[in-house]
Amino acid sequence: MLIPTKHDHPDLTLLAVAGALLKPLIRKRSLTYSDARDHLERLHPQAPLMLPLAATFLHGLGLVDYGPATDSFIFRGRR
Q: Would you say residue 19 lies in a domain?
């Protein structure tokens, strides 16, 4: 779900997971896939399932790129 409804868990919406993924990326500028998964797991045990969708959403906005050589997400937006 992009926009939460009363039936959705607030921490498991696309916007919440993408925002949670963006916080360490802005700070560190780069985050490995496993670190991103671990960070989201601390948010909610099921949040790592939304990682590919959140990364795709942020990539569509032009904020994040994926580096396959290093298996990491790279922040491309403005601070």
A: yes
Contact 76, 65 (CB under 8 A): yes
Place of tokens 């939460």: 4
Name all contacts of 69-73 with Cβ < 8 Å and 24+ positions apart.
70/30, 70/32, 71/32, 71/33, 71/34, 72/30, 72/31, 72/32, 72/33, 73/21, 73/25, 73/30, 73/31, 73/32, 73/33, 73/36
**Model confidence over 4-19: pLDDT tens digits?**
778 777 778 888 999 9
Q: Which residue range forms the structural domain that includes residue 55? A: 10-75
pTM of the model: 0.86
